[in-house]
Amino acid sequence: MRFMVVIEQGPSSFGAYVPDLPGCVAVGDTKDEVLELIQEAIEFHLEGLKEDGGLIPQPHSHSEFVEVHA
Known about the structure:
- There is one protein chain.
- The protein has a domain at 6-51.
- The chain has 1 helix and 3 strands, in the order E-E-E-H.
- The protein has one helix at 31-51; strands at residues 6-9, 14-17, 25-28.
- It has a 3-stranded antiparallel beta sheet, covered by helices on one side.
- The longest helix is centred in the middle third of the chain and has 21 residues, at 31-51.
- The protein is flat.
- The N and C termini lie far apart (37 Å).
């Protein structure tokens, strides 16, 4: 499965979240670290859903860039 991950750069760290998995987040010092951590968070999140007898949501989010003139 492939889930879209949103990465945000803060003043001193990076954050990531998965729109299709509410509550699935990670924070790291670098982009590479946060990508590694969010992958682990996704796997952990899905394992928890399975253990609780929940359904694994199918990924449905996508992203696009929109260019504007400012």
